[in-house]
Amino acid sequence: MMGAFMYNSLNIYLFLGVFLLCCGILGLIFRRTLIGMLISIELIMNGAGLNFVAFNRFAAPDAPDGMVFTLFIMGLAAAETAVALAIIILIFKRFKRIEVAGLEEMKD
Amino acid sequence: MSFGEVIFVLMAVVTMAGALTTVLSASVIYAMVGLVVTMFGIAGIYVYLHAPFLAMMQILIYVGAITILIAFAFMLAGPFYNKPKEWTTGGKFITAFLVSFFSFFMFFGFVQGGPWGEGKAGTFAISTKDIGRALFDRYALPFEMISLLIVVAIIGATMLALFSRGEK
User: Fold this and answer.
1) Is B38:A43 a contact under the CB 8 Å cutoff?
2) Interface contacts A/B by beta carbons within 8 Å
3) What is the DSSP letter of A60?
4) Predicted complex ipTM
Protein backbone atom coordinates (compact mmCIF):
# COMPACT_ATOMS: atom_id res chain seq x y z
CA MET A 1 0.00 0.00 0.00
CA MET A 2 2.69 2.48 0.98
CA GLY A 3 4.90 3.89 -1.72
CA ALA A 4 8.13 5.66 -1.06
CA PHE A 5 6.24 8.48 0.57
CA MET A 6 2.75 8.64 1.91
CA TYR A 7 1.56 10.98 -0.81
CA ASN A 8 2.86 8.69 -3.54
CA SER A 9 0.24 6.02 -3.02
CA LEU A 10 -3.20 6.01 -4.59
CA ASN A 11 -5.11 4.77 -1.56
CA ILE A 12 -4.81 7.89 0.56
CA TYR A 13 -6.39 9.99 -2.19
CA LEU A 14 -9.16 7.44 -2.66
CA PHE A 15 -9.75 7.55 1.08
CA LEU A 16 -10.15 11.33 0.95
CA GLY A 17 -12.52 11.10 -2.01
CA VAL A 18 -14.72 8.52 -0.31
CA PHE A 19 -14.67 10.59 2.88
CA LEU A 20 -15.92 13.65 1.01
CA LEU A 21 -18.62 11.57 -0.71
CA CYS A 22 -19.91 10.17 2.57
CA CYS A 23 -19.88 13.58 4.26
CA GLY A 24 -21.97 14.83 1.35
CA ILE A 25 -24.43 11.97 1.69
CA LEU A 26 -24.73 12.62 5.43
CA GLY A 27 -25.43 16.30 4.90
CA LEU A 28 -27.81 15.65 2.05
CA ILE A 29 -29.93 13.38 4.22
CA PHE A 30 -30.17 15.34 7.43
CA ARG A 31 -29.89 19.00 6.54
CA ARG A 32 -33.09 20.95 6.83
CA THR A 33 -32.57 23.88 4.51
CA LEU A 34 -32.11 23.87 0.75
CA ILE A 35 -28.84 25.81 0.92
CA GLY A 36 -27.34 23.21 3.25
CA MET A 37 -28.25 20.46 0.82
CA LEU A 38 -26.66 22.46 -2.02
CA ILE A 39 -23.41 22.77 -0.04
CA SER A 40 -23.44 19.00 0.52
CA ILE A 41 -23.76 18.45 -3.24
CA GLU A 42 -20.66 20.62 -3.70
CA LEU A 43 -18.79 18.28 -1.35
CA ILE A 44 -19.80 15.24 -3.40
CA MET A 45 -18.63 16.90 -6.63
CA ASN A 46 -15.28 17.73 -5.07
CA GLY A 47 -14.78 14.14 -4.02
CA ALA A 48 -15.41 13.05 -7.61
CA GLY A 49 -12.92 15.60 -8.95
CA LEU A 50 -10.27 14.49 -6.47
CA ASN A 51 -10.74 10.90 -7.62
CA PHE A 52 -10.35 11.92 -11.26
CA VAL A 53 -7.07 13.71 -10.63
CA ALA A 54 -5.74 10.88 -8.45
CA PHE A 55 -6.49 8.27 -11.10
CA ASN A 56 -4.89 10.48 -13.72
CA ARG A 57 -1.76 10.75 -11.62
CA PHE A 58 -1.38 7.09 -10.72
CA ALA A 59 -3.25 4.89 -13.18
CA ALA A 60 -3.02 6.78 -16.50
CA PRO A 61 -0.13 9.24 -16.37
CA ASP A 62 0.22 9.71 -20.12
CA ALA A 63 -2.50 12.21 -21.00
CA PRO A 64 -4.26 14.93 -18.94
CA ASP A 65 -7.74 13.40 -19.29
CA GLY A 66 -8.63 13.36 -15.61
CA MET A 67 -7.57 16.96 -15.11
CA VAL A 68 -9.71 18.04 -18.07
CA PHE A 69 -12.69 16.23 -16.58
CA THR A 70 -12.11 17.93 -13.24
CA LEU A 71 -12.20 21.30 -15.02
CA PHE A 72 -15.50 20.27 -16.61
CA ILE A 73 -16.83 19.31 -13.16
CA MET A 74 -15.94 22.78 -11.88
CA GLY A 75 -17.85 24.41 -14.75
CA LEU A 76 -20.85 22.18 -14.17
CA ALA A 77 -20.81 22.99 -10.46
CA ALA A 78 -20.84 26.71 -11.23
CA ALA A 79 -23.83 26.39 -13.60
CA GLU A 80 -25.72 24.13 -11.19
CA THR A 81 -25.16 26.50 -8.29
CA ALA A 82 -26.42 29.49 -10.27
CA VAL A 83 -29.67 27.77 -11.26
CA ALA A 84 -30.24 26.24 -7.83
CA LEU A 85 -29.73 29.54 -6.05
CA ALA A 86 -32.16 31.30 -8.38
CA ILE A 87 -34.74 28.61 -7.59
CA ILE A 88 -34.04 28.91 -3.86
CA ILE A 89 -34.51 32.69 -3.89
CA LEU A 90 -37.74 32.23 -5.83
CA ILE A 91 -39.01 29.67 -3.31
CA PHE A 92 -38.15 32.04 -0.49
CA LYS A 93 -40.02 34.91 -2.13
CA ARG A 94 -43.05 32.72 -2.51
CA PHE A 95 -43.22 30.56 0.60
CA LYS A 96 -41.19 32.74 3.03
CA ARG A 97 -39.14 29.72 4.09
CA ILE A 98 -36.47 27.49 2.67
CA GLU A 99 -36.84 24.42 4.87
CA VAL A 100 -37.69 21.38 2.81
CA ALA A 101 -40.37 20.23 5.21
CA GLY A 102 -42.57 23.20 4.43
CA LEU A 103 -42.57 22.86 0.66
CA GLU A 104 -45.45 20.60 -0.19
CA GLU A 105 -47.10 22.26 -3.13
CA MET A 106 -45.45 22.78 -6.47
CA LYS A 107 -48.15 24.91 -8.09
CA ASP A 108 -51.21 26.66 -6.82
CA MET B 1 8.72 11.85 8.51
CA SER B 2 9.86 14.51 6.12
CA PHE B 3 8.61 18.05 5.86
CA GLY B 4 6.53 17.31 2.77
CA GLU B 5 4.72 14.51 4.56
CA VAL B 6 3.91 16.79 7.49
CA ILE B 7 2.39 19.35 5.11
CA PHE B 8 0.45 16.60 3.32
CA VAL B 9 -1.01 15.25 6.55
CA LEU B 10 -1.90 18.81 7.55
CA MET B 11 -3.73 19.33 4.24
CA ALA B 12 -5.62 16.05 4.59
CA VAL B 13 -6.64 16.88 8.16
CA VAL B 14 -7.77 20.37 7.07
CA THR B 15 -9.88 18.83 4.31
CA MET B 16 -11.54 16.29 6.58
CA ALA B 17 -12.14 18.77 9.40
CA GLY B 18 -13.62 21.24 6.93
CA ALA B 19 -15.92 18.58 5.49
CA LEU B 20 -17.11 17.58 8.96
CA THR B 21 -17.69 21.23 9.85
CA THR B 22 -19.65 21.69 6.65
CA VAL B 23 -21.92 18.79 7.40
CA LEU B 24 -22.33 18.89 11.15
CA SER B 25 -22.48 22.58 12.04
CA ALA B 26 -25.76 23.91 13.30
CA SER B 27 -25.80 27.08 11.22
CA VAL B 28 -25.67 27.42 7.46
CA ILE B 29 -23.11 30.24 7.64
CA TYR B 30 -20.70 28.01 9.55
CA ALA B 31 -21.31 25.38 6.87
CA MET B 32 -20.28 27.87 4.20
CA VAL B 33 -17.08 28.71 6.07
CA GLY B 34 -16.37 25.00 6.42
CA LEU B 35 -16.83 24.65 2.66
CA VAL B 36 -14.17 27.33 2.13
CA VAL B 37 -11.77 25.47 4.43
CA THR B 38 -12.43 22.21 2.56
CA MET B 39 -11.73 23.87 -0.78
CA PHE B 40 -8.39 25.20 0.45
CA GLY B 41 -7.42 21.73 1.70
CA ILE B 42 -8.35 20.13 -1.62
CA ALA B 43 -6.29 22.76 -3.45
CA GLY B 44 -3.27 21.77 -1.36
CA ILE B 45 -3.86 18.11 -2.19
CA TYR B 46 -4.00 18.99 -5.90
CA VAL B 47 -0.54 20.50 -5.53
CA TYR B 48 0.67 17.16 -4.16
CA LEU B 49 -0.90 15.44 -7.18
CA HIS B 50 1.31 17.54 -9.51
CA ALA B 51 -1.61 19.67 -10.69
CA PRO B 52 -0.91 23.26 -9.61
CA PHE B 53 -3.16 24.69 -12.33
CA LEU B 54 -6.10 22.76 -10.90
CA ALA B 55 -5.26 24.01 -7.42
CA MET B 56 -5.38 27.58 -8.69
CA MET B 57 -8.66 26.93 -10.49
CA GLN B 58 -10.10 25.30 -7.37
CA ILE B 59 -9.40 28.38 -5.28
CA LEU B 60 -10.60 30.76 -8.00
CA ILE B 61 -13.83 29.00 -8.88
CA TYR B 62 -14.96 27.48 -5.62
CA VAL B 63 -13.73 29.98 -3.06
CA GLY B 64 -13.99 33.01 -5.31
CA ALA B 65 -17.20 32.34 -7.19
CA ILE B 66 -19.42 29.62 -5.77
CA THR B 67 -19.02 30.48 -2.10
CA ILE B 68 -19.64 34.15 -2.80
CA LEU B 69 -22.77 33.14 -4.72
CA ILE B 70 -23.97 31.09 -1.74
CA ALA B 71 -23.25 34.03 0.56
CA PHE B 72 -25.39 36.27 -1.64
CA ALA B 73 -28.15 33.69 -1.44
CA PHE B 74 -27.96 33.89 2.37
CA MET B 75 -28.33 37.62 2.24
CA LEU B 76 -31.20 37.53 -0.23
CA ALA B 77 -33.09 34.60 1.20
CA GLY B 78 -34.08 36.20 4.37
CA PRO B 79 -33.11 36.45 7.98
CA PHE B 80 -31.37 33.42 9.33
CA TYR B 81 -30.88 34.76 12.80
CA ASN B 82 -34.33 33.94 14.03
CA LYS B 83 -34.33 30.40 12.72
CA PRO B 84 -30.79 29.11 13.08
CA LYS B 85 -31.86 25.54 13.72
CA GLU B 86 -30.35 23.11 11.28
CA TRP B 87 -30.69 19.90 13.28
CA THR B 88 -33.55 17.57 12.70
CA THR B 89 -34.80 14.88 15.00
CA GLY B 90 -32.40 12.42 16.54
CA GLY B 91 -33.74 9.45 14.66
CA LYS B 92 -33.09 11.07 11.32
CA PHE B 93 -29.56 11.97 12.32
CA ILE B 94 -28.84 8.41 13.46
CA THR B 95 -30.25 7.06 10.20
CA ALA B 96 -28.14 9.44 8.11
CA PHE B 97 -25.05 8.64 10.14
CA LEU B 98 -25.55 4.90 9.73
CA VAL B 99 -26.12 5.24 5.97
CA SER B 100 -23.00 7.29 5.41
CA PHE B 101 -20.90 5.17 7.78
CA PHE B 102 -21.73 1.87 6.10
CA SER B 103 -21.47 3.33 2.62
CA PHE B 104 -18.05 4.70 3.57
CA PHE B 105 -16.72 1.26 4.48
CA MET B 106 -18.40 -0.38 1.50
CA PHE B 107 -17.06 2.13 -1.04
CA PHE B 108 -13.60 2.19 0.50
CA GLY B 109 -13.35 -1.59 0.52
CA PHE B 110 -14.45 -1.59 -3.10
CA VAL B 111 -11.96 0.98 -4.33
CA GLN B 112 -9.14 -0.44 -2.26
CA GLY B 113 -9.51 -3.90 -3.71
CA GLY B 114 -9.69 -2.72 -7.29
CA PRO B 115 -6.88 -3.60 -9.72
CA TRP B 116 -5.97 -0.05 -10.67
CA GLY B 117 -2.52 -0.83 -12.00
CA GLU B 118 -0.64 1.39 -9.59
CA GLY B 119 2.91 1.71 -10.66
CA LYS B 120 4.61 4.28 -12.76
CA ALA B 121 4.77 6.90 -10.02
CA GLY B 122 7.47 9.48 -10.39
CA THR B 123 7.27 9.63 -14.16
CA PHE B 124 4.42 12.09 -14.16
CA ALA B 125 5.13 15.22 -16.17
CA ILE B 126 1.95 16.90 -17.35
CA SER B 127 2.13 20.66 -17.49
CA THR B 128 -0.52 23.32 -17.95
CA LYS B 129 0.50 23.47 -21.61
CA ASP B 130 -0.62 19.86 -22.04
CA ILE B 131 -3.96 20.59 -20.38
CA GLY B 132 -4.56 23.52 -22.70
CA ARG B 133 -3.60 21.51 -25.72
CA ALA B 134 -5.97 18.69 -24.74
CA LEU B 135 -8.77 21.18 -24.12
CA PHE B 136 -8.51 22.68 -27.57
CA ASP B 137 -7.58 19.55 -29.45
CA ARG B 138 -9.28 16.46 -28.17
CA TYR B 139 -11.93 17.93 -25.90
CA ALA B 140 -12.91 20.91 -28.04
CA LEU B 141 -16.55 19.87 -28.40
CA PRO B 142 -17.18 19.22 -24.67
CA PHE B 143 -15.43 22.52 -23.91
CA GLU B 144 -17.81 24.42 -26.17
CA MET B 145 -20.74 22.49 -24.73
CA ILE B 146 -19.75 23.55 -21.22
CA SER B 147 -19.60 27.18 -22.28
CA LEU B 148 -23.02 26.90 -23.94
CA LEU B 149 -24.40 25.26 -20.78
CA ILE B 150 -23.08 28.06 -18.60
CA VAL B 151 -24.61 30.71 -20.86
CA VAL B 152 -27.98 28.92 -20.80
CA ALA B 153 -27.80 28.50 -17.01
CA ILE B 154 -27.02 32.17 -16.41
CA ILE B 155 -29.77 33.36 -18.75
CA GLY B 156 -32.19 30.93 -17.13
CA ALA B 157 -31.29 32.05 -13.63
CA THR B 158 -31.76 35.69 -14.58
CA MET B 159 -35.12 34.97 -16.17
CA LEU B 160 -36.22 32.98 -13.13
CA ALA B 161 -35.24 35.73 -10.75
CA LEU B 162 -36.66 38.59 -12.81
CA PHE B 163 -39.81 37.54 -14.59
CA SER B 164 -41.55 35.10 -12.28
CA ARG B 165 -44.51 36.19 -10.25
CA GLY B 166 -42.93 35.71 -6.87
CA GLU B 167 -45.28 36.06 -3.95
CA LYS B 168 -48.90 35.74 -4.73
Assistant:
1) yes
2) 229
3) -
4) 0.87
